Amino acid sequence: MIKKFATVLPMTALAFAASVVVAPQASAAYECRGNQICVYQNANFTGSARVLDPYAAYSDFRHLYYTNGVNLNDSISSVQKNTDRCAAFYNDVNYSGTVEYMVYGWYGQNVSYLMNDRYSSMATWAC
Ligand SMILES: [Ca+2]
User: Fold this and answer.
1) What's the CATH number of domain 33-125, 3.90.800.10, 3.40.630.30, 2.60.120.10, 2.60.20.10?
2) Distance 75 CA to ligand 1 centre (A)
3) How far is the CA of 25 from the centre of ligand 1 (A)?
4) What integer pLDDT is reported at residue 105 of this predicted model?
């Protein structure tokens, strides 16, 4: 009598091959261009970015988003200002609350410890 054996595939080898995952490359940080104010989700100009117009006023960051879809409000950790216009970032919407000024000749840095993840509006002016 002939015994029938089910064919067993070497599933362990197959499963192992499928589980090999290539580590995702860190996406290059957005390079802020001339006449742009760029805000970044993370320190040192990294993470997702959002370009702000230095000739516009932004009264409420709750309506703005980074390229990754995350809301801008209370989440900015570094700023680059590639414009000679001055800017002010406020803790609250409608240009109120604690303010930090980015004056003429200031081109960017990490947000201060006290204001990290707190900016909610921004105004600019010729200076
Ligand atoms: Ca805030």
Assistant:
1) 2.60.20.10
2) 8
3) 32
4) 84
